[in-house]
């Protein structure tokens, strides 16, 4: 076992850092990784012999009797190594990491887990102890324990330590009294996890835990974590036990109204006591008045009746209402939404602020998705409520909760919400509106599109293009996302018109231009599939893209979009459009600074990829007899040959692509064609044409000469050698082996040998390939000579 894992586990002894929970998750990942490695190693000792031949395959539910003695010895050695560690925390975590390896040694694990729980009682720091118990609950799941008493023991031990935190006026471990609330908030995830493990074991285990707690002084904060996880309609029998345990001390708090005191609101017990207050009152309704239905609980509590009469027996009304809004089903809340709003307005208790209740109500209303008429009634009341709020933060919290509903039902309440706002707060709401509107899917309703377009215009006016900070970039991204998600269905002309309006309104956003062109090309593809009316609309889409692409500043992206549009034009049968767009794409290469260091490695790869895509497209575009059948290829060669800023690596990659293109054009039948019967392929036009073959031969010779010059001009020896091998491999796989080809490849290999180590793998594999092809050529020549002699005889 390496010292690394021991050091990692030791990190969890320092609980002074505020990011302890994050640190715990990282450490646990490392521990789990160690546990998996040890498990697999021991398992392989059983399943394979020393010479790695398979012996057996362990079933999922194997027993210790199935394990060979060598594997058991290895496993036992691991536990002995861990047991020799002096520090308690690393020893516990490392044993927990390989806890399931006990399955190789034992068939009963209850005593083992209980021993680990007892060891954890030596950890005085409550935070360290709580997360040790959490990791135990996590690891023990792999042992298939029949007895879950260790979970109850763990919660009992954590409860004792929590009581020390709450009662001790000095310090506990590294934590001062001032940080008690923060400490308990860090411990809460551990308790939540263990309680969830208990819940998954069933109601009987939960009752055993409650009986265990009943025997000691109940820790209200600790029990509160459990209560907050209870569903008030599914765990009704539990309320009898919980209420009987906490009611005496809880009622004292409620009678004195201490839940409203500033001290208690800031203390560690605030959230817990609120949950207990709600549970106690709901338990009273369920058990004493025999009310078990969710709707009846609302009615019995007083929703829909006079608040002063219905709740006179209950303190902290807002606490209970907040709890009910959080836990009751969405349909029940939505059916009583208007009555709940009346209840909130009449309520004078401020234990939980009303805007938080309105927010929960909005979320439940959205979940239920009731009919438009019932939702409109609620929204009218909410708009009245919003008009009464002067606090901007509370106003935005409520408004945000109902934006999804307004978007879902395409309501016209946005204007009323925004009339109260101005400046940065208005922009914040607009950004939130666009965020919510663009997260669900396509935006199809014309009224909704128009409103969001106006929202985007306002946001666009606040973007400073000279200083694109994070906020401005976020605004631009939201506007671009909105435009990209608009969909008018079969109304293609309307969609193209919308794209034109967006280009005019948001022309300063480069990211949006990409979206506009992709959307226009997508419409063009749809029109190609519709044979009836595609030609006129296709030309409109191509014209839109041709006008928009030149305004993009990034040359690489501009070239990519030209090629994308050229491909669509070719598939639509518009060959002249496609040729013009390819010519524009070649022109983009002149604007690129293709030296090494001027672009990232991804950009360099992108340039090479785009030129390869350009060559593959040239294979499909029919040659022009008037200007020469390979005029576009010659333009590409001339552009690259005269580009003084292009690096040797990029030039070699591009010229190799041109060699592959010339080899492809010489085939009798191409591997692929344009998906349009009206586009005649070059193999149908020129195969067998001697002038075409001469043109291709001339291009191949020219490109090889250029390649050789570029390679020789490379100053770095290793780079020069690899470039020579790249060119050699390209020639070998592109053309049939011949004496002329062998001479050219030999010269390239000689360059590589002068620059690279003789044992270089790339060099040796290339030489091997050439030797194999040359031997095939020799066999063919010998066979030809033998056939000639036979004929002569």
From TrEMBL:
Signal peptide: none annotated. Its main location: other. Keywords: Endosome, Protein transport, Transport. InterPro entries: VPS35L. It is found in: Endosome. GO terms for cellular component: endosome. One of its GO terms (biological process) is endocytic recycling. Belongs to the VPS35L family. This is Uncharacterized protein.
């Amino acid at each position: 076992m390496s010292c690394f894992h021991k050091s990692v586990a030791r990190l969890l002894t320092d609980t002074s850092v505020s990011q302890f929970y994050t640190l715990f998750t990282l450490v646990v990942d490392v521990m789990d990784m160690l546990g998996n490695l040890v498990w697999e190693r021991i398992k392989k000792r059983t399943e394979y012999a020393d010479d790695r031949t398979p012996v057996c395959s362990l079933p999922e539910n194997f027993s210790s009797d199935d394990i060979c003695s060598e594997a058991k010895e290895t496993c036992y050695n691991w536990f002995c190594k861990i047991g020799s560690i002096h520090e308690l925390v690393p020893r516990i975590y490392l044993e927990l990491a390989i806890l399931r390896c006990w399955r190789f040694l034992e068939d009963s694990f209850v005593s083992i887990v209980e021993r680990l729980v007892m060891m954890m009682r030596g950890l005085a720091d409550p935070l360290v102890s709580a997360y040790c118990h959490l990791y135990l609950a996590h690891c023990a799941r792999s042992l298939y324990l029949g007895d879950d008493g260790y979970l109850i023991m763990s919660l009992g031990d954590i409860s004792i330590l929590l009581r020390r935190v709450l009662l001790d006026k000095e310090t506990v471990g590294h934590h001062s009294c001032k940080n008690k609330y923060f400490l308990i908030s860090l411990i809460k995830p551990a308790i939540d996890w263990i309680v969830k493990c208990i819940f998954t074991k069933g109601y009987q285990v939960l009752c055993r835990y409650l009986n265990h707690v009943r025997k000691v002084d109940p820790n209200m904060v600790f029990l509160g974590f459990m209560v907050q996880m209870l569903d008030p309609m599914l765990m009704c029998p539990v309320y009898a036990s919980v209420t009987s345990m906490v009611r005496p001390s809880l009622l004292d708090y409620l009678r004195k109204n201490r839940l409203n005191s500033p001290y208690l609101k800031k203390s560690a017990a605030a959230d817990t006591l609120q949950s207990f207050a709600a549970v106690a009152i709901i338990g009273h309704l369920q058990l004493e008045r025999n009310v078990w239905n969710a709707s009846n609980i609302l009615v019995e509590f007083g929703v829909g009746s006079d608040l002063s009469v219905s709740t006179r027996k209950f303190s902290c009304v807002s606490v209970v209402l907040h709890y009910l809004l959080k836990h009751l089903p969405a349909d029940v809340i939505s059916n009583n939404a208007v009555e709940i709003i009346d209840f909130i307005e009449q309520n004078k208790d401020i234990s939980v602020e009303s805007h938080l209740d309105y927010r929960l109500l909005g979320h439940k209303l959205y979940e239920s998705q009731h009919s438009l008429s019932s939702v409109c009634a609620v929204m009218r009341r909410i708009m009245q409520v919003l008009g009464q709020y002067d606090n901007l933060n509370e106003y935005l919290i409520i408004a945000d909760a109902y934006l999804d509903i307004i978007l879902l039902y395409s309501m016209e309440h946005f204007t009323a919400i925004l009339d109260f706002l101005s400046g940065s707060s208005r922009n914040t709401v607009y950004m939130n509106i666009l965020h919510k509107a663009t997260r669900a899917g396509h935006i199809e309703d014309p009224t909704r599109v128009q409103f969001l377009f106006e929202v985007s215009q306002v946001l666009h006016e606040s973007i400073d293009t000279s200083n694109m900070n994070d906020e401005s970039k976020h605004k631009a991204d939201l506007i671009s996302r909105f435009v990209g998600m608009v969909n008018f269905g079969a109304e293609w002309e309307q969609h193209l018109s919308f794209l034109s309006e967006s280009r005019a309104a948001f022309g300063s956003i480069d990211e949006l231009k990409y979206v506009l062109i992709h959307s226009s090309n997508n419409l063009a593809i749809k029109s190609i599939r519709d044979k009836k009316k595609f030609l006129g609309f296709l030309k409109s889409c191509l014209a839109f893209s041709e006008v928009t692409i030149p305004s993009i500043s990034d040359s690489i992206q501009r070239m990519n979009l030209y090629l994308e549009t050229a491909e669509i034009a070719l598939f639509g049968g518009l060959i002249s459009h496609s040729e013009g767009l390819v010519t524009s794409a070649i022109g983009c290469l002149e604007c690129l600074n293709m030296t090494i260091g001027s672009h990232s490695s991804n950009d360099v790869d992108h340039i090479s990829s785009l030129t390869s895509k350009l060559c593959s497209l040239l294979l499909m575009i029919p040659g022009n007899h008037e200007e020469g059948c390979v005029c576009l290829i010659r333009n590409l060669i001339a552009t690259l040959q005269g580009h003084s800023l292009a690096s040797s690596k990029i030039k070699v990659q591009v010229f190799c692509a041109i060699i592959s293109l010339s080899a492809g054009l010489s085939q009798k039948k191409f591997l692929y064609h344009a998906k349009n019967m009206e586009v005649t392929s070059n193999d149908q036009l020129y195969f067998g044409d001697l002038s075409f073959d001469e043109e291709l031969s001339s291009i191949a010779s020219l490109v090889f000469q250029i390649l050789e010059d570029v390679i020789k001009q490379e100053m770095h020896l290793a780079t020069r050698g690899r470039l020579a091998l790249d060119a050699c491999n390209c020639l070998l796989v592109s053309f049939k082996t011949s004496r002329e080809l062998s001479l050219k490849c030999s010269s390239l290999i000689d360059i590589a040998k002068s620059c690279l180590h003789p044992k270089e793998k790339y060099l040796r594999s290339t030489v091997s390939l050439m030797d194999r092809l040359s031997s095939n050529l020799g066999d063919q020549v010998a066979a030809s000579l033998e056939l000639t002699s036979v004929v002569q005889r």
